Amino acid sequence: MRNKMPEVRDQKSAMGSPDLSVEFAGIKLKNPVLTASGTFGYGEEYAEFVDLNKLGGVIVKGISLKPLSGNPPPRIWETPSGMLNAIGLENPGVDVFLRNKLPFLRQFDTKVIVNIFGYTVEEYAALAERLDDAEGIAGLEVNISCPNVKAGGMVFGTDPATTHELLTAVRSRTKLPIFAKLSPNVTDVTAFARVARDAGCDGLSLINTLLGMAIDVRTGRPRLANCTGGLSGPAIRPVAVRMVWQTAKCVPLPIIGMGGIVTAEDALEFIIAGASAVAVGTANFLNPRATLDVLSGIEEFLALRGVKRLDDLKGTVNTT
Amino acid sequence: MRNKMPEVRDQKSAMGSPDLSVEFAGIKLKNPVLTASGTFGYGEEYAEFVDLNKLGGVIVKGISLKPLSGNPPPRIWETPSGMLNAIGLENPGVDVFLRNKLPFLRQFDTKVIVNIFGYTVEEYAALAERLDDAEGIAGLEVNISCPNVKAGGMVFGTDPATTHELLTAVRSRTKLPIFAKLSPNVTDVTAFARVARDAGCDGLSLINTLLGMAIDVRTGRPRLANCTGGLSGPAIRPVAVRMVWQTAKCVPLPIIGMGGIVTAEDALEFIIAGASAVAVGTANFLNPRATLDVLSGIEEFLALRGVKRLDDLKGTVNTT
Amino acid sequence: MGLNRQHAAEIISHSFIGRGYYRLVLRAPDAARSALPGQFVMLRVSQYLDPFLARPLGIYSIPSKSSIEIVYRVAGRGTSLLTQMEPGSSLAMLGPLGRGFPAVEPGATPVLVAGGSGFPPLHFFASRLRRGGLSTPLFIGARDRAGLPPQPVLASFRKYGAKISMATEDGSAGVKCMVTSILDDYLSKSGHAASSVLYACGPRAMLAVVSRVARDRSIRCFVSMEERMACGVGACMGCSVRSGTGGFKRICTEGPVFEAGELDWSS
Amino acid sequence: MGLNRQHAAEIISHSFIGRGYYRLVLRAPDAARSALPGQFVMLRVSQYLDPFLARPLGIYSIPSKSSIEIVYRVAGRGTSLLTQMEPGSSLAMLGPLGRGFPAVEPGATPVLVAGGSGFPPLHFFASRLRRGGLSTPLFIGARDRAGLPPQPVLASFRKYGAKISMATEDGSAGVKCMVTSILDDYLSKSGHAASSVLYACGPRAMLAVVSRVARDRSIRCFVSMEERMACGVGACMGCSVRSGTGGFKRICTEGPVFEAGELDWSS
Ligand SMILES: Cc1cc2nc3c(=O)[nH]c(=O)nc-3n(C[C@H](O)[C@H](O)[C@H](O)COP(=O)(O)OP(=O)(O)OC[C@H]3O[C@@H](n4cnc5c(N)ncnc54)[C@H](O)[C@@H]3O)c2cc1C
Ligand SMILES: Cc1cc2nc3c(=O)[nH]c(=O)nc-3n(C[C@H](O)[C@H](O)[C@H](O)COP(=O)(O)OP(=O)(O)OC[C@H]3O[C@@H](n4cnc5c(N)ncnc54)[C@H](O)[C@@H]3O)c2cc1C
Ligand SMILES: Cc1cc2nc3c(=O)[nH]c(=O)nc-3n(C[C@H](O)[C@H](O)[C@H](O)COP(=O)(O)O)c2cc1C
Ligand SMILES: Cc1cc2nc3c(=O)[nH]c(=O)nc-3n(C[C@H](O)[C@H](O)[C@H](O)COP(=O)(O)O)c2cc1C
Ligand code: FES
Ligand code: FES
Fold first, then answer.
1. In the predicted structure, residue A8 carries a pLDDT above the cut 50
2. Which protein residue has the closest C-alpha to ligand 1 atom 6?
């Protein structure tokens, strides 16, 4: 878009309609609003409420090489201003995804980023290769941080050496831009960001959920059958904004910021902290049109302040 | 109390009034409800609302060797179901504490635990020594995890080697029971719990605040003058319960559990997860009588289920 | 669909109807037009972030062309906050959601079984049964009298031709037994067992027994399930129940009504 | 204290009074008995956890022996949630809190200065001034007409003998200038400058200028400060402002009213 009609765009900006497009890792998004993996299904589930053409992109629910049936119920629990989930990455596997889910998404003028997950380095790498030449995929988000799968996921995301090995393997098997989705359950998220850069990642997604737990005091049992789960929603936003800020300061990779975004103002916090784009997650459950509300709010904010391009706002937090 | 009138106590339990006393690290608490450091001042501030005699104990605001004036304002910010603070450990120093604050607390039949903080190992150790022979102190809580003081605090709490050095030094200078207050901003909280045990700590306090940040999108400035701050309140409770559970499972030290406790049910989650006692923090701000409400709720819960001693509930979470 | 399923539904009326239940009528023309018995809505009980998630509530009836009626029990923080909402204010609502009860096949005799607060979808279902003077058996079970549906609900079921039999565990109302016993007795005696089709909603334990009764008698049985929900539209995978053939099914989109045999009742 | 400062304060009346302000009367006999002008209360606007913290609000007047009156501006989520609370319901309240304005010394001429929404404590203060027919000068500043106190507030100030002068930055009401200019003019002209004592409440920037005016003229000046608060009782150290002698002072307990010279106005 940017290259095709620069004049119109400039005119628009001059007229007060700001340029929301962002470009990073070789991907051009018409706007910075994406959907966070696992909170928007495969797009279909929300297509009735949201014109998917309007979104910057859709990050789909995590996909694995083979179908996974996930954790036993109960899988979710409400917490103050947030929720715990332990879905356990239930998904139909990459074959069904390519056959039944991706074609639906291809109909829309939006970028599709596929969130991938495996139990071994080889599973991740094979998955990346399998998706490499599929039509209509803009990039891969490598979930190295799911707190709900015991065998592997979490270890990858919290140990630098295995994280490096994993991301290098994925890198070697795909030409698609890859985003490492980092775990917030670490002492220093920037260390993992550096590992991702060293392994050749094109960008970062942060944050995934915080590891949490809730107990039914009447039964003495955890609220989730899986015992622990991932905490998401506005409750965790201050942690997410902090991690995006810390990472953006010291690692030169574009960041997709997420964690508790409900409103445009929330999203702008991430952009100002240094994110290039944002993903709306749990908020979709409260309001299926949350992405569009965030989008129009960002547009209004920029127009009101005469900011011509969203990018001009990126990382402008003034911490002096 | 336990030793003085065992018959009365047994009778009481038989009559349905449960035994709330807990004993750990050589400290006997009449009940498990404490106040979290920094959220209850030095007791005085809330004495009008709460009969301090009714509390298991008071953990006072962090004390340093010399007075500290703290961070510039703004120091707090409300977040969804929580708050950020960057007080910066403003306190009058140990001398004023011993002269003006401790005598007030000594009037009450409650245990006083002093939260201590320093910029160097020697400061911590000197502080411990200074408090060692003060009358009316039941124990020390060593804050190795304050996210709001740049020089030291955080590094101690997130690096095992310096944590060990620090706690060993404190241990060598006091005979008082010491509790290491652990940071949740780490990959593996149990590793630090083990360090604390190896260094001779008598117990653990967890969790301190999560490191967070919020930005005023209109000005582009952080909401806190200090830029980042500590996230507390119900928003973080699932993280706190998880860390208490993880730690109780594998480190044989008594735990004072805290993080987002507002109701008796919240407190019971911590006990069932493995905490020996609980501390009510941010909730005091919402309701100055939160501690007493938690206490009476726990008592009612035990009575209703015929649990004779609170201790019978400790660590009973059923995760099979 | 064509129909809009995201609404700001205005409260038309809201009142206490006894035994811990409230009746809530919402203006929602699109939902009123399309809703099927057994479907539900997701209601946000606060515009703020605590309580956080929307609450799933069944549709109790369609009182007019432009409104839907919900009957809910105060169960926790969300539903108690809901009781404070006044007529004139609006609630964010999604729905109708999920798959409802299948239409009754010719020759089949529908038999309704409600446990605890499971009656709302059956009430809507009863209102749509066109049985030409025949009465639909309705078995209601509860722990005690206080756990039964409130009187206006019972009256309304009767209006729709339901013939109610009740059982309480403590015998404080109806027969002192599990509702599944009186159901089983009915099926033994009625002679209609062969043509009976069960429609049940209630606690999982009750549904498990109902589905066993149906299986033992080789009659069809549809159950309406409950599980915690986040999205209500099939995206979060939060509301899964074990499928009879391995794996899981999402209550919000593949249910809440299932043929009993589709599910795994073992755990 | 003897008096209870933690209340479940019932809402007696609650109404919109113009220009974005609401008037809230709460039943709180202990608070009504003991409150001093300049003191404030902490009100919880929700029984749930979002919005989270209690909101500090000044006491506007004591309308009866058993009630206190608050006038607040809708500023954000908390105050807008507050507008929805109906008479009959109760709010968790702490107060009266903090130190109010000191009594006017014999011979002193009080001069009030209100900026933006800073008038409530000055209103309470004005109601307690016993000036035997003398009128108290009240200078009110705002960005524009819409930013002025609503009419009922102005009328009430007049009832208490205030002689109001207004300034707006855009000239849409009163004189077009900063309120500190008309204050300065008054002090130059009045001849009373020596006996004047300033009592000011408003945005920090305005208070800084007012305190400079007072210092330049060597007259006493009391300011009522605002900062975000968590506890309201001196425990959290959240509400600190820079002291003039280094270190910080807690607004909630050492203030909100300070003698201007106690504070550091440089930053
Ligand atoms: C498809 C469906 C239809 C329903 N229809 C009705 C109805 O018509 N009338 C009625 O009174 N109730 C109905 N329920 C149950 C109703 O959703 C719960 O009682 C309600 O969510 C409790 O919320 P709370 O905030 O009061 O309780 P809390 O205990 O505070 O709830 C905490 C969390 O648990 C969830 N939860 C609690 N109980 C249930 C439950 N039984 N099922 C699912 N989630 C639960 C809540 O949604 C929330 O996320 C239905 C549930 C489902 C799944
Ligand atoms: C001692 C004192 C007395 C006050 N008296 C009055 C009064 O009589 N009438 C009136 O209209 N307002 C008064 N205020 C300001 C009032 O507290 C804020 O307008 C209100 O807290 C805004 O809350 P909100 O939820 O609507 O805004 P939000 O923006 O949602 O608030 C977010 C957070 O910021 C805090 N906050 C926002 N603005 C202020 C502020 N100006 N001062 C302190 N904290 C703030 C809130 O308490 C909350 O923690 C007073 C403030 C103080 C400190
Ligand atoms: C129900 C649910 C399922 C999720 N599934 C995935 C997943 O499959 N892969 C992944 O990388 N993240 C997953 N996430 C994490 C989100 O993508 C996001 O990182 C996190 O929820 C924080 O954002 P939020 O607070 O806006 O939801 C899931 C989150 C939720 C709530
Ligand atoms: C305003 C404030 C000040 C605090 N000051 C201290 C402190 O001085 N020392 C310390 O160890 N913890 C301090 N904490 C952390 C609390 O003691 C507690 O660990 C944390 O807030 C989590 O509990 P909560 O969610 O119940 O508040 C402070 C917390 C708050 C909110
Ligand atoms: S509630 Fe989200 S999939 Fe059913
Ligand atoms: S608000 Fe807590 S010290 Fe002032």
1. no
2. C57
